[in-house]
Amino acid sequence: MARYTRRATAEQVSAGIDLSGTNALVTGANTGLGMETTRVLALRGANVTMACRDLDKAERARRSILDTAGGRIDASQLDLLELDLNSLARTRESAREFTRRGRPLHLLINNAGIMIPMERRTADGFEAHFGINHLAHFLFTNLLVDSLRAAGRARVVVLASAAMDMATLTPALQDLNWEQRKFNGFRSYGDSKLMNLMFAREFNRRHGKSGIVANALHPGVIATELARDQSLPFVLMGMFALPFMKSVPQGAATTVYVATSPDYQTRGGLYFSDCREKKPLHKLALDDAVCRAVWERSCELTAVET
Ligand SMILES: NC(=O)c1ccc[n+]([C@@H]2O[C@H](COP(=O)([O-])OP(=O)(O)OC[C@H]3O[C@@H](n4cnc5c(N)ncnc54)[C@H](OP(=O)(O)O)[C@@H]3O)[C@@H](O)[C@H]2O)c1
Question: 0.85 exceeded by the pTM?
Answer without folding.
Answer: yes
